[in-house]
Amino acid sequence: MRIGLFATCLGDTLFPEAVKSTAVLLARLGHDVVFPPEQTCCGQMHVNTGYQREPVPLVRNFAEQFGDPSIEAVVMPSGSCAGSVRHQHEIVAERYGDAALRTGVAAVKAKTYELSEFLVDVLDATDVGAYFPHRVTYHPTCHSLRMLRVGEKPLRLLRAVDGIDLVELPEADACCGFGGTFAVKNAATSSAMLRDKMDHITGTGADVCTAGDSSCLMHIGGGLSRIRSGTRTLHLAQILAATRTSPHVLTEAAR
Questions:
Q1: I want to staple 11 with a disulfide (CB 3.0 to 4.6 A). Which of 4, 7, 117, 234 is the partner?
Q2: Are 55 and 43 within 8 A, CB to CB?
Q3: What angle (nearest 5°) sits at the alpha carbon of residue 189, between those of residues 185 and 192?
Q4: How many CB atoms lie within 10 A of CB 125?
Q5: Does 41 score more than 90 pLDDT?
């Protein structure tokens, strides 16, 4: 299958290893991964903040970059960006776009997936040959859980990882408090939610907290490092890309 890889803003600027791991994993599974070089932001942050007309050029560019019929699927290591493409792009195109944009958005929407749902729903794969001999807990991000409804798919993938010690996260479905600009505009509330999330994570004794969104991991990871918890954050793609012959080496976490 020819797969178009969308990096996302955070992946491009702060967490490139999550993007690289997605490409490595998909290629290892036998697929042709292409990276449209002119891709930009999906426009999610504009829509979430109430600016629905402004991201029209971004939505149009996304549809153009990934609309190539030879690209059979668009995959991204982000539930929030996948949710934006599958839900918000249509809203923007209907309200402020033209017929060509609406057609392009519909075509790309139909073949866009978050990584875990692509692996499980499209490739019918849960055991991807990963090896990760560490204690791990999983945080389901809000957009993946509530907008995309990926459900147990990430956990099914993690349970099949060789060597992993997967531990349940108490109150896993509670938001971590990030929410993009929510963490800035409502800092006190965001911090309180983060404290609860960190308490649950540290209580598991996990070496690693993983998730499908770098944005939430950035928020959680910042908090865990400030309290010197010893728990690291790592994107799901990086765990799934690790193998016995090419293992992921954990860096020392602050304690």
A1: 7
A2: yes
A3: 140
A4: 16
A5: yes
